[in-house]
Amino acid sequence: MTSFTLKVIAIVSMTIDHAGKVLGHAILLELLPDTLTGTFTTVKICTVLGRMAFPLFAFMLAEGCSRTRSMPRYLGRLALFTVISEPVFSAALIGFDLNDTWQSIRCLVFRNVFFTLFLAALSIFLSQKLTCKYGAKGQIVSIALTCCLAFAASYFGTDYGAMGVLLIHALYLLRGNRVRQCAAIVIWAFALYVAGNWTAFLYMDATIYVFYALGASLACIPILLYNGKRGRPMKWTFYVYYPAHLLALVLIREALGV
User: Fold this and answer.
1) Tens of pLDDT, residues 35-84
2) Span 4-28, average pLDDT
3) CB-based burial of residue 208 (10 Å sphere; 0-12 exposed, 13-18 middle, 19+ buried)?
4) What does each C-alpha distance from 131 to 10, 115, 142, 168, 185 come to in angstroms?
5) Tens digit of pLDDT for each residue in 207-232?
6) How far is CA 65 from the centre of its chain?
7) pTM of the model
8) Overall number of domains in the chain
9) Which residues, at least 6 apart from 117, have a Cβ–Cβ distance to it below 8 Å?
10) Best exposed site among 7, 111, 119, 236 by fewest CB in 10 Å?
11) CA separation (Å) from 37 to 28, 29, 43, 103, 231?
12) Do 65 and 124 form a contact (C-beta atoms < 8 A)?
């Protein structure tokens, strides 16, 4: 598989996930008002299938950071689409209206996944510079900075938060060894979804979190099949697709009045 194929799989997975979150309950209940249990099951299936999207994007970002000719430009693109995506992300997945969203932007509060990707890429960029210039001492400082950037992701409540930043950085450090990268993804998935929700297992049937972890772990299959080749150029497609598909989902929701 080429990087193009991995990105397509990730985009399809993400779209299924977001369609379930933005449209799922409301539209299914509108169409099938007497099947409440079925609607919840359908939305959960969408969420499980969508869990593999972030590990795939994390892997591709780690690959991109190791191959790009200009990290500053790479960071610039991520920062630009962090700002562009925030209004539709907040409207689609948080429920803010546009006034609240623009207020968040003015206060530099970003929650969409591009900000998570930006913080992770920034941690990698700083690690590259510090390690190159100061060797082992630079690595120690870069670890501290990565932890600070992960904390920032958690503080701002970005998509996947600190765990997202740490996964991307780990995949970058493990680049060149797909088996270890996949092991990191599986450990990350179960830490995030199962260990991170351990109290739920004490009071309810929380099996769904195991399925979330397994869904995220499915990303290992295309990663292991990745041949290291670029495939069809797709430089700007994901950047544009992310806010565009969220906007489309919001417009569909509004058009249906649900």
Assistant:
1) 444 556 777 888 899 999 999 999 999 999 998 889 999 999 999 999 99
2) 86
3) middle
4) 31, 24, 8, 18, 25
5) 889 999 999 999 999 999 999 888 78
6) 16
7) 0.89
8) 1
9) 57, 61, 78, 164, 168
10) 236
11) 11, 10, 10, 37, 42
12) yes
Q: What is the number of other CB atoms lying within 10 angstroms of the CB of residue 103? A: 11
User: Dihedral of the CA atoms 217, 58, 85, 190 (nearest 10)?
Assistant: 40
Distance CA 153, CA 147 (A): 10
Alpha helices in 204-236 (DSSP H): 207-217, 220-225
- The residue among 51, 58, 44 whose CA lies nearest residue 14 is 51
Give the range among 4-18, 28-42, 89-103 with minimum mean pLDDT.
28-42
- Residues 6 or more apart whose CB falls under 8 angstroms from that of 116 comprise 153, 158, 159, 160, 161, 164, 165
The DSSP 8-state label assigned to residue 158 in this structure reads -
Task: For Cα atoms 207, 210, 213, give the angle at the middle one, nearest 5 degrees.
Answer: 155
Domain range for residue 98? 3-256
